[in-house]
Design brief:
This protein is an alpha+beta fold. About 60% of the residues lie in helices and about 10% in strands.
Length: about 290
């Protein structure tokens, strides 16, 4: 095996080991970064829902109060408005799911499923907690859920959720007197939850990983090409020339010229030693011929 082949083999093994270690590290980093990016998008979705809730509560609901006495209008309900807004955003966030479950909802469809109930329970037990990220396993894979508490922060919500007598009669006629009442200021009554399948951030992480690994491979190939050029012109070619001259001298040809190399590196030092050895042999052979 030639020196160049040995050099390239060692470099290839070192690269493969380094690439493997870099792959493990970059995969971990890219997965974390992708999850952070997805959660940031989930926070943006949640922020849009909050903005819709506050807008509906402060500007739309007061305008519809009179009509609510004669007919229940879901457009006046902040949570309904937020859900409708998300449905309009669904084309931009097709993999995201948005829910607003409450423990005692007016609409029975808003009752929490077990995993949602666990999130609400944690938010109730920790009143200072403003957000919660939960990872759960489903039949289709792992899912990330970003949740914020739904708390009764003012008396505005109590207009519909304190007692059946205080609520709009049209709402009571639709949903009955058993659902969505008994709320109190300060209570955590539910949660806003944005859920994202983990395949979304993992697909993004894999894409980033392939891009980075491809970039590293290209850099290695270019580096190996340049190193081989340096190896060829500064080591292999001079050593071959010195070896050829040494063969000529060993066969008794003392007329070969000295090896001309002006560099001061190890190859230059080898050339100086070879020339000195050649001159010594020529001198020695001359002394023998004079005898």
């Amino acid at each position: 095996m030639t020196f160049r082949a040995k050099f390239n083999l060692v470099m290839l093994v070192a690269f493969l080991v380094g690439l493997g270690l870099a792959g493990v590290f970059l995969n971990t980093v890219s997965e974390r970064g992708a999850k952070r990016a997805v959660l940031a998008e989930a926070a943006a979705v949640m922020g849009a829902a909050d903005a819709t809730i506050h807008y509906t509560d402060q500007q739309v609901s007061p305008l519809l109060n009179r009509q609510m006495k004669a007919q229940f209008l879901p457009q006046s309900i902040p949570f309904y408005a937020a859900q409708q807004t998300f449905q309009l955003m669904a084309s931009a966030f097709p993999d995201y799911a948005f829910r607003q479950p409450t423990t005692n909802p007016t609409n029975p469809a808003d009752r929490p499923v077990p995993w949602e109930a666990d999130i609400i329970k944690k938010l109730v037990e920790q009143p200072n907690l403003d957000q919660l990220v939960v990872e759960r396993t489903t039949s289709t894979g792992k899912v990330l859920s970003y949740a914020r508490p739904v708390r009764v922060n003012s008396d505005t919500c109590l207009a519909c959720h304190s007692t059946p007598e205080a609520a709009p009669a049209s709402m009571v006629d639709i949903y009955g007197r058993e659902n969505g009442f008994g709320w109190k200021v300060g209570d955590t009554v539910g949660a806003q939850i944005v859920s994202i399948p983990e395949r979304v951030p993992l697909a993004s992480a894999r894409s980033n990983l392939y891009l980075l690994m491809g970039g590293l491979t290209i850099i290695f190939v270019l580096m190996l090409f340049l190193l081989n050029l340096l190896l060829h012109f500064f080591i292999v070619v001079p050593v071959r020339r010195i070896s050829k001259l040494a063969d000529e001298v060993s066969l008794g040809n003392m007329e070969v010229p000295e090896f001309q190399l002006s560099s001061r590196d190890e190859i230059g030092s080898l050339a100086v030693s070879f020339n000195r050895m050649r001159r010594s042999l020529v001198a020695a052979m001359g002394m023998l011929n004079e005898r």
